[in-house]
Amino acid sequence: MLQGRSAVVTGSTSGIGLGIARSLAREGSHILLNGFGDSAEIGRLRGAMVEEFGVQVLYSPADMSKPAQISAMVQLAAREWGSVDILVNNAGIQHVAPVPDFPEDKWDQIIAINMSSVFHASKAAIPLMRAKGWGRIVNIASAHGLVASPFKSAYVTAKHGVLGFTKVLALETAKENITCNAICPGYVLTPLVDKQVDDQAKVHGIPRDRVISEVILKSQPSGRFVGVDELGALTVFLCSDAGKSITGASLSVDGGWTAA
C-alpha cells in the first residue's frame, strides 16, 4: 500500500511510535526511527524491521526540544530517500503536578517536545512534500487534546495546541495532495503506562487489575486499553489513497472517553 514511501516517525524507539513505525514498514514504507534509548537495542530494532519487512531503516537521536536537530533529522531522511513522504509527529513526555507546584522547566520542556516539535518537523517536511506533490502528516495528539484532566496543565495545553496546528496546516495544504490529521488516543498500554500501573498499585496498595479498572481506565467507557496496532492501522489508512480526502480531522480512538 505504501511501497517505496519514506516516513519519519518521532519518538519511535518504543511504545506508540514504534508500533506505528512497524505498521508503516509492514506496508512497504522506509522508516526513520527517532528517540532515546540503548544503542544496542535500537540497532536490534532496526535490524529486526529490515529483516521482517524488507525496508530501509534509519535512526536519528535528534532531541525534539531542539529545532536545529529536528530539521537535521528531516534532512537526513531526504538525503537518503530523496524526500519525506510521511511525517508522524509522536514524540511526547508527561509531568503531573498542580499548577502552583508545576516546575517551570517541565512546562517549557513539555511544550517544546509535545507541541513545538510538531511545528518544527512539519516546517522542514512541507517543502519536500510540495516538491514531490504528495505528503501525509499524522500528529499523535491525545484525548487530552479534546478534554482536560487536573494536574496535567502542560500536557493538555500542548495537545490542544497540536489540534489547532493540525487544522491550520490542513487548510494551507488542502489543494496540494498533502493531508494533515491528528489521532487522539485514550490510554494505550505502552511500557510507560505499564510502569505507571505498577507504581499506582504500590501507592494505593491495591492489585494491578483494580488500578487499571478504577484508576487508569476510569474515564475510558470501553474498559480496555487502546491497542498500539489500532493506532498503526489508522495511521496507515490516513496515509493511503483511501484517506486522501481526510484532512484537518481530529480522530478519537479512546473507547468512548470523549463521547460524554
What does this 3D model show about the protein?
This protein has 260 residues and is α/β, with parallel strands linked by helices. The protein has two domains: 216 residues, Rossmann fold (3-Layer(aba) Sandwich); 37 residues, no CATH class. The protein is built from eight helices and seven strands. The chain has a seven-stranded parallel sheet, sandwiched between helices. Strand 4, helix 4 and strand 5 form a beta-alpha-beta unit. Helix 1 packs across helix 8. The chain is globular, with a radius of gyration of 18 Å. The mean pLDDT is 96.
Summarize the structure.
This protein has 260 residues and is an alpha/beta fold. 48% of the residues lie in helices and 13% in strands.
CATH fourth-tier homologous superfamily of the largest domain: NAD(P)-binding Rossmann-like Domain
The CATH class designation of the largest domain is Alpha Beta
Average of the residue pLDDT scores: 96
- How many helices in DSSP terms? 8
What is the chain-wise order of helices and strands? EHEHEHEHEHEHHHE
Separation of termini? 36 Å
The major beta sheet can be summarized as: 7 strands, parallel
User: Overall 3D geometry?
Assistant: globular
**Low-confidence runs:** none
Strand line-up across the major sheet? 3-2-1-4-5-6-7
* CATH architectural grouping of the largest domain: 3-Layer(aba) Sandwich
DSSP summary, beta strand count = 7
Name the helicity range. 40-55%
Classify the beta-strand content into a percent band: 5-15%
How would you name the oligomeric state of the polypeptide chains in this document?
single chain
Reported by name, the CATH topology of the largest domain is: Rossmann fold
